[in-house]
Backbone:
């Protein structure tokens, strides 16, 4: 990136305050962890330290979660939480889940490394920007000095002050590059410690994908068994009764055949709905725009759809995007109390971003086994990420970032 690009890039200036205060943040975490961990170890002899240790682990994991969000704002680094799935119940199971998860200890390592790393970043950043500011402001300060009749503290004359100002312009470019360099180094370390190893991430993604596929298979089996299969069985019984009464009671036969005909149509409708739930034909034939417009037309509230894709993404991406929107619209119709919603699909670099917004009451959360968790599992099958922002009182935004290469 050229000098002008570095200077006008907002990411450069968002990184500056983070690097200046990272040392203070690291020092604060060091003292907090030193006190809480030490107290937990000492009090563990009397069993009092067990709940304190549990709270301490939750504290530093919460700090790591917060750091991932801050790094995204400061450096533009997207780090998904790499934790293993939470157990459904049991205090002992939760404690084992916390302590056996490698991401827990990488979180602790990052927060401890943040002190020396942040101190170096803060010292270098402060010295660099103070020196740059002094050089850039040299003409202004000399002018104020001349106006007040002071001595030559900032510069001996105008020539010297303008030379210092020119040197400040060069220093500004160098400072911007140094800021980006430190941000890159910090982001690389954060990716290793807070983002988890690539192999573990892929293994977790594959496991979630397998679980999602297994849950989908069970749903299809349940729908077939409880729906179409039962209706077809009823049709067979009606036709058998009609066959036995074919000669003796024509009127009853006519009623049974009519009943079997109605049952057959109902079974066909259920099979059609089931097939649409597996993969809608309109999605394969006409793509996301038409398929999502069909979902919006069936929604009980007004839903605006905007699909801005230059070319069709891979079929797996289309399918996952479709079902994320379908489940989100179903949820908002049932629970949100929304009066309007919107669906936006855009191409962002090498991936597709899907946003579903509604003006409902908010409060949606991702819980294990819930519908939103199932959508996150679907996205994880292709290394995608699903984020839900739903404060109490609304609005709610469900965002899925789906890579087109995995």
Residues:
């Amino acid at each position: 990136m050229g000098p002008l690009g570095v200077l006008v890039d907002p990411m450069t200036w968002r990184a500056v305050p983070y690097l200046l205060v990272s040392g203070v943040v690291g020092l604060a975490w060091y003292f907090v962890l030193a006190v809480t961990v030490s107290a937990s170890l000492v009090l563990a002899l009397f069993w009092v330290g067990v709940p304190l240790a549990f709270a301490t682990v939750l504290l530093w994991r919460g700090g790591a979660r917060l750091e991932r969000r801050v790094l995204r704002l400061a450096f533009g680094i997207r780090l998904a939480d790499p934790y293993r799935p939470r157990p459904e119940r049991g205090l002992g199971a939760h404690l084992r889940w916390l302590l056996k998860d490698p991401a827990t200890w990488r979180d602790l390592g990052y927060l401890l490394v943040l002190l020396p790393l942040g101190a170096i970043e803060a010292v270098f950043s402060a010295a660099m920007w103070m020196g740059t500011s002094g050089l850039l402001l040299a003409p202004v300060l000399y002018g104020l000095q001349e106006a007040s009749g002071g001595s030559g503290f900032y510069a001996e004359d105008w020539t010297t002050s303008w030379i210092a100002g020119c040197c400040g312009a060069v220093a500004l470019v160098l400072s911007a590059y140094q800021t980006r360099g430190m941000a890159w180094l910090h982001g690389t370390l954060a990716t290793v410690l807070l983002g988890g190893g690539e192999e573990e991430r892929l293994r977790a993604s594959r496991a979630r994908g397998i679980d999602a596929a297994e849950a989908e298979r069970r749903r299809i089996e349940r729908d077939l068994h409880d729906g179409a299969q039962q209706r077809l069985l009823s049709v067979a019984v009606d036709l058998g009764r009609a066959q036995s009464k074919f000669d003796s009671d024509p009127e009853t036969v006519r009623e049974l055949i009519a009943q079997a005909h109605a049952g057959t149509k109902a079974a066909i409708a259920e099979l059609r709905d089931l097939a649409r739930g597996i993969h809608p034909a309109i999605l394969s034939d006409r793509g996301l725009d038409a398929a999502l417009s069909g979902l919006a037309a069936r929604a009980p509230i007004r839903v605006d759809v905007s699909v801005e894709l230059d070319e069709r993404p891979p079929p797996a991406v289309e399918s996952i995007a479709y079902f994320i929107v379908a489940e989100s619209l179903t949820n908002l119709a049932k629970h949100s109390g929304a009066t309007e919603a919107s669906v936006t699909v855009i191409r962002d670099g090498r991936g597709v971003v899907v946003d579903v917004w509604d003006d409902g009451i908010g409060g949606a959360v991702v819980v294990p086994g819930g519908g939103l968790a199932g959508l996150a599992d679907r996205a994880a099958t292709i290394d995608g990420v699903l984020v839900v922002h739903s404060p109490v009182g609304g609005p709610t935004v469900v965002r899925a970032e789906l890579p087109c290469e995995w």
